[in-house]
């Protein structure tokens, strides 16, 4: 396996990421938050149009991991004043445990460090024990607990985790 990581920029690539997001989210998050909320969040945050808007208008950078011509994971980052928000990081279930998420995190932390940021932070569902453990193994620590209303009666009940640079 030779995994390459690159940025995306086009609407077509955003649509490809959205298709991967739907597959990952349905498989991984349905047991945690239920199918109705998964579908709502995919439409609100992970659709091709949302991803492309984030890239073209909102200052996000999206990275994809590819094994040959197959897209197998993605992450999104948004630089802020003295920190970077790791907004999304997802790897297809068939490729988990192969250090792809770690490669994304090291890439993001390297770029944030070069910008002079103090830290990188992310949010993670409090019930997502596997991801929390993975983030802790990559140097992130829980810094607070948040519950965010995302509309239509849904909330994101998350930890904020941070990795100092």
Automatic annotation (TrEMBL):
Example of a GO MF term: acyltransferase activity, transferring groups other than amino-acyl groups
InterPro entries: Acyl_CoA_acyltransferase, GNAT_dom
PROSITE patterns in alphabetical order: GNAT
Domain called N-acetyltransferase: residue spans: 3-165
SUPFAM superfamilies, alphabetized: Acyl-CoA N-acyltransferases (Nat)
Protein name per its UniProtKB record: N-acetyltransferase domain-containing protein
Source organism of the structure: Solibaculum mannosilyticum
Origin organism lineage: Bacteria, Bacillati, Bacillota, Clostridia, Eubacteriales
């Amino acid at each position: 396996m030779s995994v390459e990581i690159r940025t995306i920029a086009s609407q077509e690539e955003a649509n490809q990421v959205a298709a991967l997001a739907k597959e990952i989210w349905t498989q991984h998050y349905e047991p945690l938050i239920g199918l109705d909320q998964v579908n709502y969040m995919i439409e609100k945050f992970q659709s091709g149009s949302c991803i492309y808007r984030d890239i073209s208008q909102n200052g996000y950078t999206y990275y994809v991991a590819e094994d040959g011509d197959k897209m197998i994971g993605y992450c999104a980052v948004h630089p802020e004043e003295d920190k970077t928000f790791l907004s999304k990081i997802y790897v297809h279930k068939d490729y988990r445990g192969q250090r792809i998420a770690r490669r994304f995190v090291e890439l993001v932390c390297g770029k944030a460090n070069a910008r002079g940021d103090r830290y990188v932070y992310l949010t993670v569902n409090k019930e997502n024990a596997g991801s929390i453990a993975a983030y802790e193994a990559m140097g992130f620590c829980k810094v607070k607990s948040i519950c965010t209303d995302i509309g239509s009666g849904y909330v994101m009940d998350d930890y904020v985790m941070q990795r100092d640079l």
